Amino acid sequence: MRAMVISGGGSKGAFAGGVAQYLMEEMSYDYDLFIGTSTGSLLISHLAMRKIEKIKEVYTSVNQDSIFSNCPFVIQKKYGVESIAINHWNVFKNFYNGSKTFGESHNLLKLIKNTLTPEEFQTLQDGPTDVVVTASNLSLNQVEYKSINEYTYEEFCEWIWISCNYTPFMSLVQKNGCDYADGGLGTMVPIEEAIKRGATEVDAIILQTETTLFNRMPSKNAFSLLTTMFAFMLDRIETQNITIGKYVAAHHGAIINFYYTPTVLTTNSLIFNKEKMTAWWASGHNFAKYKNVELNQIQPGVK
């Protein structure tokens, strides 16, 4: 049983799309299970249907307006470097309306429903491939995995949305009396869950470099500090997930094929830029090609 796991990583998810495209179209891999966290959750439904060009067009065209119904920051560009600063008016407006977060991301839910149709959802439910997204239950202090086979169309679209809600910048969602947020707050790379569900070989796409290649620039404002702190915590969670995944794989005799980003794509994955994301998609495709050609040179005949 083969599984594809895609980690969280905001706009860097475009790289994952390119890797997945190469593995599915050029290597002709068939997957029994797709598991995604955060941005990975946005990709996996269409990958499972092999509608790769469709999700590529949608994903690389996403911008702040596609995601935020109330965006809590503004993008500043100085000396060619993009950074974020607080949009004081939008944040004040959100708090005045009783929100618990700086911004709201209801536009993303609309985009998910416009992209994944009820007919496509039914096709996936009727098919043999399982599609699973990750969500963090803050009330019960646990990570939950939501399979497409367990929910209605409306419910599953909402779980995809919840998996991507990078609080406190995006919406906090209440369901069944519990507060839910981004799956990455609990599990960035759900390799362990893939193996628990029966995977014997896992292609894990990690939207981070294998080793630390940079020191972040000093924080310029409160939002910059918050994003830096969250990035630090998520990096630690990711490292822990990978370590646990390797241990579980060794225990169950499973194989993990890792696809890390070869370079630092961005230091702020909340900034969505069509030109850069299109280039990252191509970069992911080329990197997967290079990695598999190199593997075949070492072990002829191995895919």
Fill in the keyword field for this structure.
alpha/beta; two-stranded antiparallel sheet; 10 strands; 303 residues; globular; eight-stranded mixed β-sheet
**Tally of individual helices:** 11
Number of strands: 10
What proportion of the residues is helical, as a percent range? 40-55%
Report how far the terminal alpha carbons are from each other.
15 Å
Question: On the 0-100 scale, what is the average pLDDT?
Answer: 91
Cα-atom radius of gyration: 19 Å
Shape: globular
Measured by DSSP, the beta-strand proportion falls in 15-25%
User: Structural class, please?
Assistant: alpha/beta
Query: How would you characterize the largest beta sheet?
Result: 8 strands, mixed
User: Would you list the SSEs in sequence order as H and E?
Assistant: EHEHHHEEHHHEEHEEHEHEH
Low-confidence residue ranges: none
